[in-house]
Design a protein that fits this description.
alpha/beta; Aspartate Aminotransferase, domain 1; Aspartate Aminotransferase, domain 2; 2 domains; 43% helix; transferase; transaminase activity; PyrdxlP-dep_Trfase
């Protein structure tokens, strides 16, 4: 194997070199080779992509749909996204100028942040949250401002946002919200979002709304900043969670035409265009798969209730998640706030993999995230193992 020439050592992007890899993925890799482990670490649905969606992708391949698609997305997919957002958010985005199809919601985030931000800007990010946001913001030269929401039930309140902007708001360009939240599963009530919208408008900010889990909510209604301040909101979503299509890597971003030109330009520089058969599958999912998330949601809600009840019986404290497929549970007091030690010992001694809460930023210390996007059998066995582990601790 070739070895890098010594005179090239260290000649890489310094911002990248200073950025730590994903703590979620790093911990997952560290425990994945433990024999017999049940992994509840990643947000990976155990469901299969609906058959009619798979067949649409297959037909695309058979029809030799194998050439460069339009850079912003196939017209039929842009139209399907526009109709979906109008149907669910009441906002009409022009398919030709206000929507970009991306390689997953991750690329949608990257294209958005690189299009919006300059060195010295700040982005307000309520935490704990999906930790990918921090390095993406930092790579643009901007600064992520973490706002610990643990004292407010893991929800950013309008009062807290106003307080942060008064103290650290100079140079703030955007507020980045993820709801339902990864890792807490918390949703934002209508009145809270309306209050946040007023503060965001008052301070002349963008709202970046990552709503990838919005089709998976339980017993509550999902409200969107997109509906409240569309003139300021960059709306990001995709089909990975709603239709169990994580491997398809299909996301999208929508917003006012004046900014979408820049986001589309960044997207084109990064990936050129999205795979043809994936876009064909997405058209089918959006046009004819409206009931698919409903069926998945029933299964996830049942699993959520089972795991929450089981963990509470074992003495864990947590809020009942209103969406997504994660539980954010406080670790036993004997570990203090050392969630990494707890998760490591749980993995090696009980053979159950969970993610340390500190991987999700400020306010996550002392918690662990469990994904219940796993089989009923695995969840039942995981609870049995966790129960034995906790009893030995006590």
């Amino acid at each position: 194997m070739p070895k890098l020439s010594s005179d090239l050592t260290g000649t890489i992007n310094h911002k990248l070199a200073a950025t730590s890899p994903s703590g979620i993925r790093a911990f997952d890799r560290s425990v994945s080779n433990i024999p017999g482990i049940i992994k509840l670490t990643l947000g990976e649905p155990d469901m299969n992509t609906p058959e009619h969606v798979k067949q649409a992708a297959i037909k695309s391949i058979q029809d030799n749909d194998s050439h460069y698609a339009p850079q912003m997305g196939k017209p039929e997919l842009l139209e399907a996204i526009s109709k979906y957002v109008e149907r669910t958010r009441g906002v009409k985005y022009d398919p030709e100028s206000e929507i970009v199809v991306t390689v997953g919601a991750t690329e949608a985030l990257a294209s958005t942040l690189f299009a919006l931000l300059n060195t010295g800007d700040k982005v307000i990010i309520p935490t704990p949250v999906f930790a990918l946001y921090f390095p993406l913001v930092a790579m643009t030269g901007a600064t992520p401002i973490q706002v610990d929401t643990s004292a407010d039930g893991f929800v950013l309140t309008p009062e807290k946002l106003e307080e942060v902007l008064q103290k650290e708001g100079h140079g703030a360009r955007a507020v980045l919200l993820n709801y339902p939240s990864n890792p807490t599963g918390r949703e934002y009530p209508q009145e809270t979002l309306e209050g946040l919208a007023k503060v965001i408008a008052k301070h002349h900010l963008y709202a970046i709304a990552d709503e990838i889990y919005s089709d998976l909510v339980y017993g509550v209604k999902h409200y969107s900043l997109t509906s409240m301040i569309p003139e300021r909101t960059i709306f990001i979503s995709g089909l990975s969670k709603s239709h169990a299509m994580t491997g398809y890597r299909l996301g999208y971003v929508a917003g006012p035409q004046e900014i979408m030109g820049s986001i589309g330009k960044m997207h084109a520089f990064l990936v050129t265009t999205v795979t043809d058969n994936v876009q064909a599958a997405a058209v089918e999912a959006l046009n004819n798969g409206q009931e698919d998330p409903v069926e998945f949601r029933k299964t996830y809600e049942k699993r959520r209730d089972f795991v929450v009840a089981g963990l509470r019986d074992l003495g864990f404290e947590m809020s009942t998640p209103e969406g997504a497929f994660y539980i954010f549970a406080k670790i036993p007091e004997s570990f203090g706030k050392d969630d990494v030690k707890f998760a490591t010992e749980l993995a090696h001694q009980a053979k159950v993999g969970v993610t340390p809460g500190s991987a999700f930023g400020a306010g996550g210390e002392g918690y662990v995230r469990l994904s219940y996007a796993s089989s009923d059998e695995d969840l039942k066995e995981a609870l049995n193992r966790i129960g034995k582990f906790v009893k030995e601790l006590n």
